[in-house]
Amino acid sequence: MKASWDIFCSVVDNYGDIGVTWRLARQLVAEHRCAVRLWVDDLRAFERLCPPIDVALPQQWQEGVDVRHWPAEWSPVAAADVVIAAFACQLPPAYMEAMAERERAPLWLNLDYLSAEAWVTGCHGLPSVKFKGVQKYFFFPGFQAGTGGLLREAGLLERRRAFQQDPLARKGFLAGLGVFAAPDARLMSLFAYENAGLASWLEALAADSRATHLLVPEGRILGDVQNWLGVEVLAAGAVQVRGALTVQVLPFVRQEEYDQFLWSCDFNAVRGEDSFVRAQWAGRPMLWHIYQQDEDIHLDKLDAFLELYTQGLSPEAKAALIDLWRAWNAGGEMAQGWKKLLEHWPEVAAHAEKWCLEQGSQPDLAAALVQFYLNWI
Questions:
Q1: What are the Cα distances from residue 169, in Å, to 105, 153, 240, 361?
Q2: Residue span of the structural domain in which 228 resides
Q3: Are residues 329 and 225 in the same domain?
Q4: How many domains does the chain have?
Q5: Which of 112, 273, 347, 364 is catalytic?
Q6: pTM of the entire predicted model
Q7: Are residues 229 and 355 in the same domain?
Q8: Which of 87, 40, 79, 85 has its CA nearest to residue 60?
Q9: Among residues 17, 224, 274, 364, which one is catalytic?
Q10: Is-catalytic flag, 17?
Q11: Is 70 exceeded by the pLDDT of residue 336?
Q12: Which InterPro entries did the record assign (predicted)?
């Protein structure tokens, strides 16, 4: 298929929005031969994920994607065959006029936030508003049949499996990041928003009978880590030891490296949407810090996912996992929840791999978008 696509991304959550749209744009180009323009209003946030980006350029090519700076003052351009407003961002009024002026109206999609809530399957693919005859449709990523699926590149799970079965590949990758953990240490990653519950978790890890090597990429949680350690400055390259816990701060890595980073760890604490999905593809036990929303409506999304994710676990393992996730997302006490999860570690670890393979058997988001367009035309 050769169709033109415009993807609009307004960066509102540091890296989640651009993380999703950048992955999608590259996959549409690489696997579906689409011509993709990615419009981004914050190239500096984009630069963290794609270091070759020149933030001063209004237009540039990256990995086959036509990357455009989305300026405050819009210059007229022809509308594409498919137009994606990522996460309900508002398109430029002049661009909407260009859509209406096309001889054949484009397919206009609102690519919404990921959710496991039951109502999503009923709304996915339904028409939304119209603009001068141009119809917009809802498109929901999701975990169940009847949704748009999850972003997953071709061969991803096979590459992950080969990496995890190759100790030398893992060791070499970690060495490239400057990570040299003790052979018997539990390797964990921490990428989260600010969280009052972190101190109790770190205390539990420090007092554990087994060593833990905690890898913390630069990000918003770093201030809480710094406060617990009682140090004035904590930057990339820092290594601090407290009891059985070694804390190591890593520089922000590009997306491809972040996948291998998650694959390398025994447990991954992640946040937002993009890293949340990538942690699931790692097939390892995980903890999600969901983005907080007004009136705590994010907790409904959290519970909906937990209801799906914990199916098949024993009642005891299910309760341990749910209690830990809820405590983390409430900024609560983490020590007892972590201890309970460790009691069920073999079952939780096997379940994470099983969930990964189940999700991997479904169509991926990029393929679902392309099929939706083919059905539409």
A1: 49, 21, 26, 26
A2: 156-360
A3: yes
A4: 2
A5: 273
A6: 0.95
A7: yes
A8: 40
A9: 17
A10: yes
A11: yes
A12: EarP
